[in-house]
């Protein structure tokens, strides 16, 4: 009997160990109307491979003693360099046919942060955000000023055509046609044609990480919304809205309809619920996404707390996302 009880205790301990898996990095590649029926096996595999590569890139740095900041920057750079994602190389086009990118990074240990917005020639905006954090007294730089700063910091500058991809260009042309229908026939006709369901606001990428010293970091990068106008900036580069990290609580990177994330101060609200209410990262994550949904917004986020617990809530059809554990086990998901 004692032997049986002992075996049961061992099994319970083992089960607890599995459920208490410690994660060291979580990544997202955007949320939105991502349906399996619209995805080819080849493209699905390409997305999974890209997320896996980003996770492995960050993990390799963490494993060799690099900081969480190094890990999230490196992971996001791999996604910026991949045209599958709406950041860097794969950024969507504005109404005027330009690629305008935003990015932010935050150090959970010091609460230092850096961001750039509306940049058009910086190959890796996330590295520019880190440069703003570490090489200036500012938090955010925008447009031409941010680009001048990046040049002086020695970051790689490219011709704007580098960001051009046929898929994003075609998406802009479709959006412009739909704008014409709305202008000519009004919103009622647009609704009949299903135009109000156009999914042109998602695709941000981001990473959160926890290093061996217990330091958290978050990084987010985006090309914004297809057909965006008038210098629009979303939540990604706004500290506390789309990006936040604090060693006391959690690191957060958001993706979705940015205006709603700004109005709800989503990333900071998640941290505050953990700090002031004692909420778990999963409960706080669900709560803030519910707030976004209640106002009519949609999207998702990734969050990693100081103990290595993670959450990936979203209220869309899918979100490209993945995580890696302390022992290197990779998990990648796309659909609900």
UniProtKB/TrEMBL annotation:
Active site residues per record: 204 (nucleophile)
Origin superkingdom: Bacteria
Residue positions binding substrate: 232-235, 255-258
Gene Ontology molecular functions: hydrolase activity, acting on carbon-nitrogen (but not peptide) bonds, in linear amides; peptidase activity
CDD domains linked: Asparaginase_2
Gene3D superfamilies, alphabetized: (Glycosyl)asparaginase
UniProt keyword terms in alphabetical order: Autocatalytic cleavage, Hydrolase, Protease, Signal
Residues of the signal peptide: 1-20
Swiss-Prot/TrEMBL site (Cleavage) positions: 203-204
GO BP field: proteolysis
Keyword Protease attributed: yes
Keyword field contains Signal: yes
Protein name per the record: Isoaspartyl peptidase
Organism: Chitinophaga parva
